[in-house]
Structure formats: structure tokens, C-alpha cells
Amino acid sequence: MTNFSQVMCCAAASALLIAPFATIGGSTPGTYTYYQFPSGIRGLSVVDFSITVEVDPGYRSNVYWSNQFDFVGTSSGGYAGMQSNGGGPRMFLFSIWNASEAKSGSPGSYCLTFGGEGEGKSCRMAHEWTPGHTYKFRLAHEGDRWFGVTVTDMMSGLSFKLGSIRSESMQISSQGMMNWTEYFEWSSPSSNCYNQPYARAEFLKPVGNDGAAVASVSGSHVNAPCPANVGIIQVGSIQATAIGNSLRGAVKAGNGLCLDAKGGSGTSNVAALGYSCHSGGNQSWVHGVDGTLRLQSNLCLDAHGRTTPGAPVVVYTCQNGRNQKWIQAGAQLRSEPSGLCLTSSTAGAQLTIQNCSSQPTQSWQVLRP
Q1: CB proximity list for 321: less than 8 A, separation 6 or greater
Q2: How many Å apart are CA 220 and CA 14, to the nearest integer?
Q3: N or C end of the chain: which has fewer CB within 10 A?
Q4: DSSP secondary-structure letter at 256?
Q5: Are 57 and 84 in contact (CB under 8 A)?
Q6: Residue segments in the chain with a per-residue pLDDT below the cut of 70
């Protein structure tokens, strides 16, 4: 959920920005596109937003793609979008600040009160959205200040209603409309520009009152310092985030075993193993543009200063040293200081660096866009 007052301050930003790159704890990517409707249009009864997640950042990512709006005659607003939810069910959400009444929509939807960055009501539904499919979010006034959101998969035709929330207004404002991509691991001090997965989504221009009014792009913004950009296109914008990083997920060897941090994903100086593949956090890696292989907890695959064949590999707190840099050469992952290749053997055995060869134990699949 975005900070409403913080986002609004940035509406005058330029249409294409690329943020500088740095390793800063607690930093995550964020991109925003701002819209305006033709002059003379103040209030709308219906607005259609559309989102297509073109590149899925991975099952264990925590990314939110959303559309944000204001209401006429009040300082409150809301948003509606879709999330990849850190290994939990993928979600569609609709929320309004300063609301006190809500009711669910289609079977499986539910509503609750939210707090933290403002207070209000939120209606949501777990649904396994499909990358490459366009989802239309139809925000409509239903009478007596009640607004509902219906989601339609424009490829399959499937529709479902998230719910209805009572606002402080009768109309959607034509001002202050935007959409955004946010990584909600921003609240974790272990987050940084190198352990967040790449993602790309297309947002279409908002359409009001069943085509009577179409918005145009008025600007965009990119959160510093993580690399991202907003590309303005004829139909709206494309937001690309964590540019240069891989997706988040398993790194799998040719022998069928996955790169694994022994004992979990939160302890430094543990063995790096080849292990049966699963969807746990200790097997969910991002190959950063800096060459590191990182877990979300900011632990890195580390050759531990060793440069001789057969040396064991560990998982260690990220420190930006060369011993934590891995060069992908074809399917091989080579330790930067030695040029030796990351090598798996049997299930549960510690990984090593070895002279490079064509063996499947040195062939690694890293999830790439």
C-alpha cells in the first residue's frame, strides 16, 4: 500500500527516469505514472483501469501493481490492483481510505479494516493471475456513495467482483489518478537494490464513463536509488523495476538439485547445499546486476576467500566482496576471484568450486526475464 501524501508530492516528475544504483538497506524499487483528463471534466461515475504483468518477478516476490484514484470533494482516495505475495496466495485488492463500511463481492472475496499508512476498508480475493493477461479493474459508483470494483481477465473473459466500499463522495475525481509498481519488502531493513527481482508491467490509460473521457499521461516518477524506468507509450506506460537483476526463484543444477542455504534463509555462515528443489525462502535467489546471488534476507553465496579447486562454498552476510561475485558464463556460475565453477554433487552435500567442465553438476538454470 502506497503512502498517499508521499506519492502525491512527486506528480511533477519527468516522463522517463532511471534511478542511480546503490546498495542501501531498506531500499526497494518503485515506479509511478500520473494521468490527467481533459479540462472541464471534474467527476466520473465509472473508471476502467488495466494492468498486464508482462514479466512475473517470481512466486516468492512481494510486488504490488496498482491503480490509485481520488474522490471529488474529499481528501480521501483509494486504489485497486494485484499482488505477488511472497509465496502466499496471489491477490487482487480494492481499498479506500477513511471508509468505515464494506461488503464482499464474488464468492471467495472478503473485506477488512486496514491501518498503518492511513486507515480504511479493503476488499480482496485470492486469485492466481496469469502473466501476459490483461486485467481490467472497473471502479463504479453503485449509489449512495458505494463504489465497487469488478476485475475481468480480458483474455479468458473471467470476471469477479472484489467488493463494495462506501466512500465520502458520490464521484471519482478526474484529478490525482496514477498507477504504480511497489515492492512491499521496503519495510525490511535487509532489502536492497540487489535482492529484489526484476519485473515489468504495462498500464493502460484510465478510461472514464464508458469511453466518454480518456486520460493522458502527465508525468512519472522513479524511487531512488534502485534502477527502474517508466516508458511512456501510446496506450499508457510500461514500468520496469529492479533492472539488471534476475527473477526470484530456484537456481537449479543439471543434476536436478537446487542451490540451498542449509537450515533456512536467515542464518549467516552456513553451508551452501545441493538439495531437492522446493519453493522455500532458502532456495529463492536473485542474481543481482552486481554479480551476487542473494536471498531476501540479504545472505549471499560466498566462496569465502578460497580460490583452490574443491573449496567449499557457504552462504554469508552480503559484504560486496569479490568472493561473493558470480559470473554467469553460459550455464556456468564462476567465482570471480578464481574463475572456478560452482559445482553440485549429491543431495545434501556442500557445494564446491571446481575446475570448469561440461558436467551437468556445473550447469545452472537462473531465472531470467
Answers
A1: none
A2: 6
A3: C
A4: S
A5: yes
A6: 1-26, 117
CA distance 43 to 367: 45
DSSP 51-119: EEEEE---TT-EEEEEEEEEBTTSS-EEEEEEEEETTS--EEEEEEET--EEEE-STTEEEEEE-SSS-
Angle (CA) 185-188-193 rounded to 5° is 65
The letter for the amino acid at 37 is F
Q: Please give the helix or strand (H or E) that residue 7 lies within, else none.
A: helix 4-8
pLDDT tens, 10-39? 322 222 222 333 344 468 999 999 999 999
Distance from CA of residue 204 to its chain's centroid? 18
Please, are residues 337 and 307 in contact by the beta-carbon 8 Å criterion? yes
Contact assessment for residue 132 and residue 148, using Cβ atoms and an 8 Å cutoff: no
Q: What is the pLDDT of residue 115?
A: 84
What are the cell numbers at 331? 550455464
Query: What does pTM read for this prediction?
Result: 0.91
Backbone φ, ψ for residue 5 (5° rounding): -70, -35
Query: 217: which 3 cell numbers?
Result: 499521461
Do 254 and 261 meet the contact criterion of CB atoms below 8 Å apart?
no
Residue type, position 144, single letter: D
Per-residue pLDDT at 151: 98
pLDDT at position 118: 77
Burial group, residue 144, by CB count within 10 angstroms (0-12, 13-18, 19+): exposed
Give the residue among 311, 309, 312, 313 at the shortest CA–CA distance from 324: 313
Q: What share of the chain is helix, strand, coil (3-state, %, to 5)?
A: 5, 45, 50
